[in-house]
User: Fold this.
Amino acid sequence: MTRLFNEPAAFADEMIEGFVASHGRWVKRVSGGVVRNTKSTPDTVALVIGGGSGHYPAFAGLVGQGLAHGAAMGNLFASPSAQQVYNVAKAANNGAGVLLGYGNYAGDVLHFTQAQERLRKEGIDCRSIAVTDDVSSAPLAERAKRRGIAGDLTVFKVAAAAAEAGYTMDRIMEIAERANDRTRSFGVAFTGCTLPGADHPLFSVPEGRMAVGMGIHGEPGIGETDIPTADDLAELLVAKLLTEIPDGAIDAATAGTAAGKRRVVPILNGLGSVKYEELFVVYRRVAQLLAEAGLEAVDPQVGELVTSFDMAGTSLTLFWLDDELESLWNAPADAPAFRRGAVTAEVLEASDGGELADVKLSIPDATAESRAGAVRILAALGAAKDVVDANADELGRIDAIAGDGDHGIGMERGVRAAVDGARDAVARGAGAATTLHFAADAWADKAGGTSGALWGMALQAVGDAIGDSNAPDAGAVAAGVAGAAAAIMDFGKAKPGDKTLVDVLVPFRDALAAGVNAGQSLTDAWGAAATVAQQAAEDTARLLPLMGRARPHAEKSLGTPDAGAVSMALIVRAIHNTLIEQTTIKENA
Assistant:
């Protein structure tokens, strides 16, 4: 379990502060994460990597000369927000574009893609590589759906070396994609991980048993077996990876000859609680098995490289080399958690920039009616915060059935930030739309993860529909909810039946529109729609997840509703209660 923390919600920020204080030779803090504290070559591509905190040395430990130029750092097990990614990319940019690297998780894809689009609009050449090395998370025919685990390191390292050598963006992208195509990983776990402040792990494994094929966010494995000996575990890991040799990794014309010697970088990665000595015992047999298979192990890595807090587990990665990839892998690098060769780097002076100051957004003019509506919106967000706080543990429990168990924590972070953002807007005289826009930006920025992105979109869409000129009326609110549904489905690609919040949002949208079109007040139409939403959330228990981290563990979620659907139903009901209170106050005035 995690023992040393202050306020759990502050853990990630305090961790970053301490990391920078202890590694100032390599990194400095910027809004959203860290960047190099050493001079980079001008007019070269910058590599910005990132993901949720809780995986050290990934991602901040890989920032330094010869490796990443910056790392966007989200909250625990939650992707960084688009704003965080954008800030780090802007600070790291050397003038020749930015390559964004991350693991293939829904929240990371959403936020990094949003940041990429924003950077491109500013004229910055920005590309992305989503690592897909985990063979247990999807079949080979659906390799694009696989998640990224310890194979992040191989892709990031060779892409960074190519950038350091001055390669063009097109060449770096080709190298990163080739490295990703040639990287395969497979892992196991003996215990789950426990987040700061939690009194139980995100998942558990029965005593004497081992979860097979788990992820790095606490996702349960796809199967269980008795705990094997070290040698038996090595044989399981190697045998699994050798069933899937990447295309082009073996040259049929020279196979079996000295010229055709197959070379791999083996990475035996500890996930947090397995000791180095245990890993060495396992690697002893891994090395033997690779040699017996005719493989030459190049620069083996044994240790903690991509962790999962205190999870007891390990994964094996095989990175299949060619001459160019081997040269880039062996190129010098000097980062806090990964060093090789001789690197000369000049530390930046304090005046050399890189910091991005937080900008205080201006408040557009608004009518008195809209400002009054903003006060009611703040009350509605406050009600949403109260209901999320009261149900956060249960939302986490539901999410942990087949996912990573962080939904309650993420919703708490997001809705609390939204309330703070809305309160600031109201205090400065904002109208209804601006208040929702402030809340949307704050929710997406502070929550991160998939839910942060989607709730940010939802609030933004409702704000766009109601404007700052009039009091929010039933028609505008219904149009805003419709806009929210369209934006979420377009960007997240989920549809009804996929077991996501869309399974609540769509019937809620339709019921609200029907009530408003029938002439009902906003309070009455919203109340009827909230009842529909509650039933829709309960009905997701019968569905199999087809999107997100729960998809590989679909059967485990049968009988349990989707956490995102439940949280949405809770929030719309809580908002209805505020509408009733506001109507009562108006009638008694």
Summary: The CA atoms of residues 482 and 509 lie 6 Å apart. The chain has 16 helices and 15 strands. The longest helix spans residues 368-400. Residues 252-259 have pLDDT under 50 and may be disordered.
